[in-house]
Amino acid sequence: MSALRSSADIEALVENDANAAALGEARFGAARDRAVVVCITVGTGIGVGVVRDGILVHGAHGTHPEAGHVVVDPDGPLCYCGAHGCVEVLASATAVVTAATAAGVIGAGGTAKQVHDATGADPRAAAIVARAHNALAALARTLVAVHAGRSVDAGAAVF
């Protein structure tokens, strides 16, 4: 990083996609004037980045918030973290593809986009995508409440 900083004369840092998205929105995007910026990213997992007063929020040991493991459906599927009904096991691309494959909506090797595209014609696909949307909405409501914000920005690399 120091070589990049000195050769390009720019600020440089390495972050995960959720933190980078939140920082980008806070500094250059639609959230420029907000004291608190919360950004949810949806991909193979669920990521959350938080910026408070222009500073990226990290956990106690320099980690990022693991909000993908917020439980929104205690009766939901088992997550690899050991809990049931985490947002990640309901709304990530991996979760959508897994559910759609099990339901016969798509075959092996199918994508979350194929599931989304099938929602108009296949009620099983519509139910899977609705479940993902509901899980993300529950997470967004929780994050707004926890961070005393007014809104949450969401970005997706899935649909």
Features:
159 residues; alpha+beta; Nucleotidyltransferase, domain 5; four-stranded mixed β-sheet; 4 strands; globular
Give a short summary of the structure.
The chain is an alpha+beta fold. The chain has helices at residues 2-8, 17-28, 87-91, 93-102, 112-117, 123-146, and strands at residues 36-42, 46-52, 55-56, 153-156.
Question: What would you say this structure looks like, in words?
Answer:
- This protein has 159 residues and is of the alpha+beta class.
- It has one domain (2-156): 2-Layer Sandwich (Nucleotidyltransferase, domain 5), CATH 3.30.420.40.
- Helices cover 40% and strands 13% of the residues.
- It has 6 helices and 4 strands.
- Strands 3-2-1-4 form a 4-stranded mixed β-sheet, with helices on both faces.
- A hairpin with a 3-residue loop joins β1 (36-42) and β2 (46-52).
- The longest helix has 24 residues, at 123-146.
- It is globular.
- The mean pLDDT is 87.
- InterPro entries: ATPase_NBD (IPR043129), ROK (IPR000600), ROK_cs (IPR049874).
- GO terms for molecular function: N-acylmannosamine kinase activity.
- Its EC number is 2.7.1.60.
Helix/strand-derived class?
Answer: alpha+beta
Average the pLDDT over all residues and give the rounded result.
Answer: 87
Main sheet record: 4 strands, mixed
Counting DSSP E segments of at least 2 residues, the number of strands comes to 4
Please list the strands of the largest sheet in the order they lie side by side: 3-2-1-4
Share of helix, binned: 40-55%
CATH topology: Nucleotidyltransferase, domain 5
How many structural domains can be distinguished in the coordinates?
1
Using the 3D structure, state the CATH architecture: 2-Layer Sandwich
Q: Overall 3D geometry? A: globular
- Identify the CATH class: Alpha Beta
Low-confidence stretches: none
CA-to-CA gap between the ends?
33 Å
CATH superfamily placement: ATPase, nucleotide binding domain
Order of helices and strands: HHEEEHHHHE
Q: Roughly how many Å is the radius of gyration?
A: 17 Å
- Work out the helix count: 6
- Approximate strand percentage: 5-15%
GO molecular function: N-acylmannosamine kinase activity
Protein name: N-acetylmannosamine kinase
InterPro entries: ATPase_NBD, ROK, ROK_cs
Pfam families: ROK
